[in-house]
Amino acid sequence: MTELASWKKFIVLSFRTGFLLATSLLISQHSFSQSKLDSLLDKLDPQKFANSVAQTSKKLEDKLVKKSLSMLDKMQKQEEKIYNKLLSTKDSLQAKTQLSLLKEKYGKLKSNLKTPSILTGSIKQYIPNLDSLSTSLKFLDQNGIGGKVKDAMAKAGSLQDKFQQAEKIKEFIRERKQQLKASLEKLGMVKQLKKINKQVYYYAAQVKEYKDILNDPKKIERKALELLSKTKIWKDFFKKNSFLAGLFPMPVENGGAAQNGFAGLQTRAQVVSFIGNQGGSSTPGFAAALQRNIQSAQGFVDQLRAKLNGLGNSEDLDMPDFKPNGQKTKSFKKRLELGTNFQSQKSNFYFPTTTDIGFSLGYKINDNSVIGIGSSAKIGWGKDIRNIRVTGQGFSIRSFLDWKIKKSFFASGGFEYDYQQSFSSVRELYNPDSWKKSALLGLTKIVSFKGKLFKKTKVQLLYDFLYKEQMPVTAPLKFRIGYTF
Description:
By secondary structure, the protein is α+β, with helices and mostly antiparallel strands. It is built from eleven helices and ten strands. The protein has four domains: 1-38; 45-236; 248-313, no CATH class; 333-484, Porin (Beta Barrel), CATH 2.40.160. 52% of the residues lie in helices and 23% in strands. The protein has an eight-stranded antiparallel barrel. Strands 1-2 form a two-stranded antiparallel sheet. It starts with a helix and ends with a strand.
């Protein structure tokens, strides 16, 4: 009995020791993970990150909803015009029924857009950066970060839902376009068909433009994603909780077994174990078994690739039957082009007597033309290198138009008002009789310039058709070098 009691005490003591050791290890591991998490949160500022995501999501959602509603309104009006013409034919009863059904469909799509909602069900369009932002917010929320995180999660989810609704709208209007084609050609309404084609194309292009904005995150969002992506705890969370994880459930190794993965898709540990158990390539049937496994894996890889490609098919733009304007879907700010240019006039040797320093603001009408306004100040440098004196020698107000001819060559024209006298105060510029006119036409060559500040270099040679009217008479040719930011 004494020996049995000793064994019991030993077993109890061993169990207690093991339990305490295991508990200590778990606590220390949790404390270590928590300290790493706290250090990470101190660097990225969760509240600013959440606020940035919320603002971006709300802004894009408002634009997407507005554009989608406008598109549906235009399409509905076009269809109503078509069916109103069909009402006068022998198929008027059928046309009336179809028009009623269409109004119901359009009304349902508009109602869904106006109703606040979050993403439900499977997604048809995967947006990588939105997935990363949403999953990061979920990660912060599950780790007890409150404040603006939940609001940002709701806005990001709502934006994802609106993108899915946009995909449904694109599918719907493409189907309507195909169905209307026969009716429009039959009624001789070719212009209306072209108009619908443009509306469909530009709507798809606009949705794509909004997605591209998400792929260029703000500085604070980019920094937060970079910090999170470097930690193992976030990577593990992303594998289980992202949209991508829902689309492609990858196998999780647990004791050598694959769980929650595609049936038949082996983990790395399984492949290594399989090769080791075969005893090398000399074992009979080894090559055939290995080939079968490779083919099986390749088959699943092909399935994954097809599924991923399928998510992007609805975003592909239809081949337009017109020349699209790539600037039409861009915001007003992105269509602006800021630039500067310089033009010098020398008196003797290489020393310039004056230099015109100009600034311009252009607006891209389309991919081939820019229209804009600008101004310049004429700076005097004195007589020569020994007598340098900075003075105001004139001022000008400019307008210009650049039209692409071929590749990097543009035809350039403009009209300018020049004040070609020295002045000591701005009031002297108010006299209209002191201003002279210039009508310019010439050629511009764009030279690519690799740099963060200057994107393009412009070399211009312009002819002034009104140079003889200047007093004193100026040179007819103007050579300018400019830069576009």
